[in-house]
Automatic annotation (TrEMBL):
Residues 200-241 are annotated as: Disordered. CDD domains: UBCc_UBE2R (cd23803). This is E2 ubiquitin-conjugating enzyme. One of its GO terms (biological process) is cell division. One of its GO terms (molecular function) is ATP binding. Keywords: ATP-binding, Cell cycle, Cell division, Nucleotide-binding, Phosphoprotein, Transferase, Ubl conjugation pathway. The active site is at C96. It holds the Pfam family UQ_con. Belongs to the ubiquitin-conjugating enzyme family. It catalyses: S-ubiquitinyl-[E1 ubiquitin-activating enzyme]-L-cysteine + [E2 ubiquitin-conjugating enzyme]-L-cysteine = [E1 ubiquitin-activating enzyme]-L-cysteine + S-ubiquitinyl-[E2 ubiquitin-conjugating enzyme]-L-cysteine. Pathway: Protein modification; protein ubiquitination. The keyword Cell cycle applies. It is an enzyme of class 2 (transferase).
Length: 241
């Protein structure tokens, strides 16, 4: 291993630098990416805005991506720092998603090797997977069994059993304080959400504040119609696939 070490570091650093640059030049909707520490390419901080027309609308969720030294041959780990109640997120925030599992053959998991990590995956594909996972949990092998049971009740009752939805709305409201502290204005309409958030230049940091932080009204019925957007407006999970 030792003699390969330097080669891995050089090639993974190069790969990460290119990805970071690409994500800052052409961001993914609803995400802001920064390095936890300018000198360390292996730890990224992610801010995720909850997509409009979902339970997560108006939410501001923070996460970390930790890359292995042999990236992209091994997958990174994705961990939420914000408290998340979700069938595929462990209590400690770790996200359990097939694309982040190494491509070993494991018939127990119910995953095909093709659904797992391979070096053509990248941060962009991970972010998109995480967003679709938030809206369409996978209840096959849950990381949080209680959340999974509750989600299934919500889904099978076509939303009449509100418990799952209410917990998520509470968590979304709880993220407002974080957003205010970070001086971030969370998009609540598709038009705002679809503006790709460029990371601010390093010297600005988080000292820019917004006065017009939106009021605490209930955002549920504030549907924006007819905007053409990246985001699929399917009402996530109410119908069985």
């Amino acid at each position: 291993m030792a003699q390969h070490g330097h080669h891995h570091v050089a090639s993974s650093q190069k790969a990460l630098m290119l990805e970071l640059k690409s994500l800052q030049d052409e961001p993914v909707e609803g995400f802001k990416i920064t390095l936890v520490d300018e000198s360390d390419l292996y730890n990224w901080e992610v801010a995720i805005f909850g997509p409009p027309n979902t339970h997560y609308e108006g939410g501001y969720f923070k996460a970390r991506i930790k890359f292995p030294i042999d990236y992209p041959y091994s997958p990174p780990a994705f961990r939420f720092l914000t408290k998340m109640w979700h069938p595929n997120i462990y209590e400690n925030g770790d996200v359990c998603i097939s694309i982040l599992h190494p491509p070993v053959d494991d018939p127990q998991s119910g995953e095909l090797p093709s659904e797992r990590w391979n070096p053509t995956q990248n941060v962009r594909t991970i972010l998109l997977s995480v967003i679709s996972l938030l809206n369409e949990p996978n209840t096959f092998s849950p990381a949080n069994v209680d959340a999974s049971v509750m989600y299934r009740k919500w889904r099978d009752s076509k939303g009449k059993d509100r418990e799952y939805a209410e917990i998520i709305r509470k968590q979304v409201l709880a993220t407002k304080a974080d957003a205010e502290r970070d001086g971030v204005k969370v998009p609540t309409t598709l038009a705002e959400y679809c503006v790709r958030t460029r990371a601010p230049p390093a010297d600005e940091g988080s000292n820019f504040f917004y006065d017009d932080y939106y009021d605490d009204e209930d955002l549920d019925d504030d549907e924006e119609e007819g905007e053409d957007c990246c985001y699929d407006e399917d009402d996530s999970g109410t119908e069985d696939s």
